[in-house]
Write a structure and sequence with these properties.
This protein is mainly α. 56% of the residues lie in helices and 5% in strands. It has 10 helices and 3 strands. Strands 2-1-3 form a 3-stranded antiparallel sheet, with no helix packed on it. A hairpin with a 3-residue loop joins strand 1 and strand 2. Helix 2 packs antiparallel against helix 5, helix 6 crosses helix 9 and helix 6 crosses helix 10. The chain starts with a helix and ends with a strand. About 3% of the residues have low confidence.
Length: 238
């Protein structure tokens, strides 16, 4: 009975969020027994010369050994990926996949110049940035200590990383890529003389978009980010 309940809850997670978070958890679990981070990290030389093309993907899936940092990243990845998929990308799975591909490509290019070997955390920050800019009126609470509006969340997370002694290059990369996507998708098309530069290829739409939605599906509201103590949100005037 408990297994069936867990399975049902798992299958209720939107497909992209479910696939990505599962891949991240399995990659970390496999690292404990089967593989090492040296087989996963981003290395352009090994990709181009030894054709180890899997590194283009696996560097986005590894978040380090199981511990506080891993759990912290997994919670934020799951929450904001799901809220985007069930919110502004509701019924637009192909567009969401295209955002993944666009963001991953930009991070891979930029990551080459800043010598980053794992880009999963930067990708999470990108998701947080896009969600925060699309929900500017949501008030956040961080560990019960700080109250601020959603657009400041990526910067608060960067400050938290700094307090933990981590490099903020990862956070800055995620913010930069998230801003590029948000500007091209949400800002520039609404400017005088602007237009849509990011258009999801028809092949991706054919693969991922469904003709109709499940009437019984119960989405996770974007204004209720999961009930955790950090990053808790509430819409103004609500």
């Amino acid at each position: 009975m408990a297994y069936q309940t867990i399975q049902q809850e798992y299958l209720q997670i939107p497909v992209v969020t479910r696939a990505y978070t599962t891949a991240c958890v399995l990659t970390t679990a496999a690292q404990l027994e089967l593989i090492t981070p040296f087989q996963l990290y981003f290395n352009p030389d090994l990709i181009l010369r030894n054709y180890q093309v899997w590194r283009l993907i696996t560097n986005f899936l590894f978040f380090g050994p199981v511990g506080f940092n891993f759990l912290f990243n997994m919670i934020f990845l799951y929450r904001y990926c799901r809220m985007l998929e069930e919110g502004s990308f509701r019924g637009r799975t192909a567009d969401f996949v295209f955002m993944f591909l666009f963001g991953g490509l930009l991070m891979t290019i930029f990551g080459t110049f800043v010598s980053l070997v794992f880009l999963g955390q930067a990708f999470t920050i990108m998701l947080v940035y896009v969600w925060s800019r699309r929900n500017p009126n949501v008030r956040m609470n961080f560990f019960g200590l700080l109250n601020f509006q959603a657009p400041f969340l990526p910067w608060v997370l960067m400050g938290f990383s700094l307090l933990l002694g981590n490099s903020i290059i990862v956070d800055l990369l995620g913010i930069a890529v998230g801003h590029v996507y948000f500007f091209l998708e949400d800002v520039f098309p609404n400017q005088p003389g602007g237009g849509r530069w990011l258009k999801t290829p028809s092949i991706i739409k054919m693969l991922f978009d469904t003709p109709e939605e499940d009437a019984n599906y119960n989405p996770l509201p974007e204004e209720r980010p999961g009930g955790f103590a950090w990053g808790e949100g509430q819409r103004l005037g609500g």
